[in-house]
Fold this sequence. Notes:
Elements: E1 5-9, E2 25-34, E3 42-50, E4 55-57, E5 63-65, E6 73-74, E7 80-88, E8 93-102, E9 111-114, E10 118-123, E11 134-139, E12 144-148, E13 153-161, E14 173-174, E15 179-188, E16 192-202, E17 208-219, E18 225-226, E19 231-235, E20 238-247, E21 255-267, E22 277-286, E23 289-292, E24 297-301, E25 306-312, E26 327-333
Amino acid sequence: LVPEMSITRNAATLPMVTEASAGDVFGFSFDVFETGPSIAPAFNISFEDNVDSNLAISLGSATCTPAVCDAFTISPDMTQLFGSIGRLNPGDRVVVTYTASVVAGVTPADTINDVGVARMRYYARSKFSSPSPKMSAMAAADMGLLKTVLDPTVSFALVGTSINSGAGGAATDVVAEEFIVMETTVSVPEVTTSLSVSFTFSSVSANLLLEQEDAHMVASNGVVTDVNNHVNGTVGLVTTLSFGTISNADGNGNRDVVVQFRFVVRSTDGGTIRGSQVTIGSSMVFTGGSATAASAVTLTLAEATLEHSLTMTSATTSLDAGDAVMFTVDVNHVA
């Protein structure tokens, strides 16, 4: 009887994250087993395994338990592991383990899949003995999707206005003719992605005129790299700021890109716009997806309402030429 061999891939060890990003480590292993029933050993056993193209195998992580494996090698693209064992006796089992990390260029559109198919070849006799049939075995433990890659996230808020509304209302009460500043914060995980941020007006009252200023980046934590120049444009009620491609390297953690947008509200006909409203929201488009900030901001025009009265304060109503007449004017801000 010739020896019989089996090779079985085990479940992958996944990083303790919901979604993956550059540098996250996945663990892989497979068993090489001399199953018998022959009492003859197997010789010159070679094996290989492969990983997703978004992973890179760490050659130094490859181990063999017990330590009977010859030196390991990996393919130039770091997605295939190769190794060999000189001899296995009946009943011997060897466990091969290694790790692979998510590559730096991973994008939010990517997935990490278990694409490995462990392969093995062996001989029934030593290469120093007479020639014998070359035997082979193959086993796959494809777990399918292992992890998806993290997407950027977006938040949105009213920063402030150029003057105090003075209306005693909420922070979203604003006065016409003043600058209003909105801010979008994009949190970029350790990925490489295209990115653009948009500001969109909606529910605009008919008597309002919106004069939009440029959107511009105000902060990036000094880590997120802007590859292209920012391109800013306005079409109708939407202003978009494009960043081209940005990247956040492994080890940085999430980093923020902060964008501010400034605009002015005016009256279209010079009439009253008190109580008119305008809603503004923010969204982004990135490689493989898009996202909208959880809540838009509705602004209410809070023009002041004033009342005034005129009172004569002279002691008498009978006047001669040259008498001085005193009046008092009271101006009250009533709403």
